[in-house]
Amino acid sequence: MATSGGGGAALCGALLDYKTEKFALTRNRRMGLLYRLLQLAVLGYVLGWVFVVRRGYQDTDAAPHVSVVTKLKGVSVSRAEDARRRLWDAADFSRPPQVGEAGFEPVSQRRSGSPSVLDGICVEDVDCPMGNPVVHGNGIKTGKCVMFNSTHSTCEIFGWCPVENDTLPRKPLLAEAENFTLFIKNTVNFTKFNFSKGNTLQTNDPTYFKTCMYDPFFSPSCPVFRIRDMVEAAGETFGALALLGGSISVRIEWDCDLDQPAAHCQPRYSFILLDRRYNFRTASYYWDSQQQHYRSLLKLYGIRFDISVHGQAGKFGIIPAAVSFGTGIAFLGTATMICDLVLLYLDAKADFYWKEKFEEVRMGCGTTWES
C-alpha cells in the first residue's frame, strides 16, 4: 500500500525551499533617476569622506609620545608703595607653570587678634587655649587674652606681621609683560611608524628664533609667542586678564599624513580661556642682623598656560584600504535595496511589479511507502 506523508511534505517544503534572484528590467525613469542618485551619493561618501577626508586607506597611530619645553623671556620694573623699584626678569616670572606679580614683606612676631574674627574674642586667658589655631585668622593662640581697645579683648596670636593686604591695584603692576615672549618647543614621536617631528624650523640661521614671532599666516613655523597675542587669541585682553589673573589652554594638534613629505607635517595651535581668576602665594625666608626671622610673602596674580599636545599620524595599509573598499561596495547594495522597497511598496503599480518580480515554481515533494 502506498501513502503520501502530508506532514513530511509540509516540513520538506518549509526547510528545503530555495530562493534565487530574478532580475526584472523596469522602464521607469523616476526609479532609474533615484537609483543613479543613490549610487552617486554612496560613491561621494566613500570617495570623498572615507578616502579623502578620513583617509580610510591608512593605518593610524593616535597615541604619540610627546615632550614640551618652555622658556619665558622679558624684563619689567614695578614700583612698590614705598616708592622702591623692583626689577622682574624671566627667573621671577616663570614660576613653573605660572606668570605672576605683586607682593609685600611681613615679619614673624606676636600680635593681638581682630574683633572681627569671632574665634579670637575672649574675656580671660582660659578662652585662648595655647596652640589652637584661630579659625579664619592669621596665627596660633599664645594662651593670653589682651585688650584690643576700650571695648574689646582678643586672643594674642603668634603669626606673621603685618597680615596680608587684600587691596588690589587698579591696573596691572607689570603691564610690560604683555610684550614678553614664550618659547614652546614640542616634539612628537609616533612609535608605530618610527617617525618623529618637532615644531621648530630646521634652519642654519642662529638668529632666527631671536627675531621671529609666531603668526598663523605669515610665520606658522616659529615657536615664539607674544603673551599679548596668546591672550587675544583666547578672546580676552591682556589688561583685563592680568589684573586678577587667569588660565589659558594652549592646544597643539598634529595631523600627519606620512604618505606625504615630512615637511607637510606641521602643528596647529589654538588658545582657549579657561578661567578669569588665578593667583597663588610664595614665600622666601631669611634672618636680619638682629637674628630676627623674616619672610617675604608674595601673592601673585598672573596668567597660567596649560599646554596640551594631541596628534595622530596615518600611513597607507593594505588591511584598512581593503576594509574601506569592501565597505564602499557593500554600501552600493543599499541603493538597490532602497529602490526595491519604493518600487514594491510605495509605487502606484506596486502590485504589478510584485507579481513580475516574484514567481513561485511548484515541484512535488513527498515520501511514498510501499508495503
Automatic annotation (TrEMBL):
Keywords, alphabetical: ATP-binding, Disulfide bond, Ion channel, Ion transport, Ligand-gated ion channel, Membrane, Nucleotide-binding, Transmembrane, Transmembrane helix, Transport
One term under GO cellular component: postsynapse
Cystine residue pairs: C122-C145, C128-C155, C212-C222, C256-C265
Location in the cell: Endomembrane system
Signal peptide: none
Chain segments annotated as transmembrane: 33-52, 325-346
Main localization of the protein described in the UniProt heading: membrane
Residues the record lists as binding ATP: K71, L72, K73, T181, N279, F280, R281, K299
GO biological process terms, semicolon-separated: calcium ion transmembrane transport; response to ATP
Residues that carry a glycan: N179
One Gene Ontology molecular-function label: extracellularly ATP-gated monoatomic cation channel activity
Record NCBIfam families: P2X
PANTHER family named among the record's database cross-references: P2X PURINOCEPTOR (PTHR10125), P2X PURINOCEPTOR 6 (PTHR10125:SF21)
Protein name, per record: Purinergic receptor P2X 6
Species whose genome carries this gene: Pavo cristatus (Indian peafowl)
